[in-house]
Amino acid sequence: MSSKPFSVAPVDATFGAVITGLKLADMDEAAFTALYETWLEYGLLVFPGQNLTNQEQIAVARRFGELEITLQPLSNVRDDGSIRISNDDDMVKILKGNMGWHCDSTYMPVQAKGAVFTAHVVPAEGGDTAWADAQAGYEALDVAAKERIANLSAYHSLYHSQKQFGETKAKADSEYFGYGFDNQDPPLRPLVKIHPETKQPALAIGRHAYSIPGLAEDASERLLAELVEFTCQAPRVYQHSWTVGDAVLWDNRRLMHRGCPWDMNEPRVMLHSRIAGDQASEFAAHA
User: Fold this and answer.
1) How many separate domains does the chain show?
2) What is the CATH number of the domain that holds 221?
3) 2 falls within a domain
4) Which residues span the domain enclosing 125?
5) pTM of the model
6) Which residues are paired to 273 by β-bridges?
7) Exposure letters 33-60 (e unless 16+ CB within 10 A, then b)
8) Which of 119, 153, 215, 226 has fewest C-beta within 10 Å?
9) What does the pLDDT look like over 243-285, one tens digit per residue?
């Protein structure tokens, strides 16, 4: 019998579990310690029916570390209740970009540690979120593939990953908050990342990654695409269909994720708190 003060039901994937019997907003220290260990073990934790307030979400996220982003709506609904549907809308560009597999903030000098994500308004169909296990993806590579990528790195840039949706950056007339679009040099990150706590290797890939030094551009693009396609296959993927009140917590050092399409004439309101990475393990310089 589990000694944990909550129930853990693994999902049908190489990672992930549904947690019940725990109210996140009221965790004592013993429950939090057990939850943190469970998070490192599974990478993704799903908490049905939490109905966290904004302040509760922030407080829960802060227990896992300092926050890189305190609370940011990822939503096609404006403050006045109108729906964003134009492809020229900067937030629509971000929402559509986020439908590509990625890890958060790899384009920043310090990659994020993880995130808490909550559902407040969900469409009748679609709008799921999917995760992929980059640790299991690396483990499943054959020896030759592991040797090929062992000493390779790639640059990461939000400008690069968003260019197909048109230029999006902080500007005076934009409602988009502009995060990640400042004029910084793109960080160079190894394709194989060692998790600072579990010590397990994982692939550091996704839509923000490009231009592997030492490879021609077409060979670099092809290799990165092949690694993403290989990783994002069963049993290394889990897709969550949201119910209002759900909360999820994921380890950004192990998992990629993406949003799934929905009819953007319907509202979808999600709130995102991003946990800051440790400078010692998540920093990457431009080189």
Assistant:
1) 1
2) 3.60.130.10
3) no
4) 7-277
5) 0.95
6) 116
7) ebbeebbeebbbbbbeebebeeebbbeb
8) 226
9) 999 999 999 999 999 999 999 999 999 999 999 999 999 999 9
